[in-house]
Design goal:
Elements (H helix, E strand, L loop, with lengths): L4 H10 L7 H6 L4 H6 L9 H20 L7 H11 L2 H11 L9 H5 L6 H19 L1 H12 L2 H4 L2 H4 L2 H11 L5 E9 L6 E8 L2 E8 L2 H16 L2
Antiparallel strand pairs: 1-2, 2-3
Length: about 230
């Protein structure tokens, strides 16, 4: 059914993934148009895997946002999750993974450049995640999903929702305090799961500390602690 299995194996290796059932992943690339044009082959398309992948991404992004520091409320998490799993965002993830090269389309879809369409790529990405989840489980996908969803193109709006650094800056300026700086205290964990700890100082005095999966998030957490203390 698939003529590029070695290339697909290399793709898995590139993304630090290893599975034993290649047929499951191959199925993720079978578009319904290809199935319809090749009815004699009795193929299944990727729509069931797409359903599974959608559920996995909904769960993973919900957990990701729940664990964010500074904390987001339910409304903010709902808004951000919808942004993270929207069609444009998932299509971007598919392009980052460079997996459209494996997509099986019908002739009409090929002529219409379906492999470049956001809707087609987003559906394929969900199917790929569904297949990988069934083979590997959610935790094995953590590094891959983190690398994709922490990219600025996908994640650019998150730090704008609760900007404690700006709040702190405005409060300090109103109180005539002049200097704010952020000090990196420590970096822990493997390269793909770093945890940063940062302190924020006002006129050289530490007012808050925070941790996060990036320096920016750790700074936001430190600023949140600082402004909470200062406005009491």
């Amino acid at each position: 059914m698939y003529n590029n299995s070695m290339t697909l194996v290399q793709w898995l290796e590139k993304n630090s993934l290893q599975i034993t059932n290649m047929k499951s992943l191959e199925l993720a690339f079978i578009h319904r148009s290809f199935k319809h044009e090749n009815a004699a082959l009795h193929l299944e398309d990727n729509q069931r895997l797409e359903f599974m992948g959608d559920a996995v991404l909904q769960l993973w992004t919900a957990r990701f946002l729940y664990q964010m520091n500074p904390r987001l409320d339910e409304g903010q998490m709902t808004k951000l999750r919808s942004q993270m799993v929207c069609e444009q965002s998932l299509a971007y993830c598919a392009r980052q993974l460079d997996c459209a090269q494996f997509l099986k389309l019908g002739k009409g879809e090929i002529l219409d450049k379906g492999d470049q369409r956001d809707s087609t790529l987003a559906d394929m990405f969900e199917a790929v995640i569904g297949a990988l989840y069934l083979e590997l489980g959610l935790e094995a996908l953590e590094p891959l999903l983190m690398s994709l969803f922490e990219h600025p193109e996908v994640f650019k709006s998150l730090n704008k929702i609760v900007d404690y650094k700006t709040q702190l800056q405005e409060y300090v300026q109103a109180e005539d305090r002049r200097t704010i700086d952020y000090l990196l205290l420590s970096t822990e964990g493997p390269a793909n799961l770093r945890i940063f700890e940062v302190a924020v100082r006002v006129d050289g005095i530490i007012y808050g500390k925070g941790k996060g999966s990036s320096k920016k998030r750790a700074e936001q957490a430190a600023a949140e602690e600082a402004i909470t203390k200062m406005v009491k």
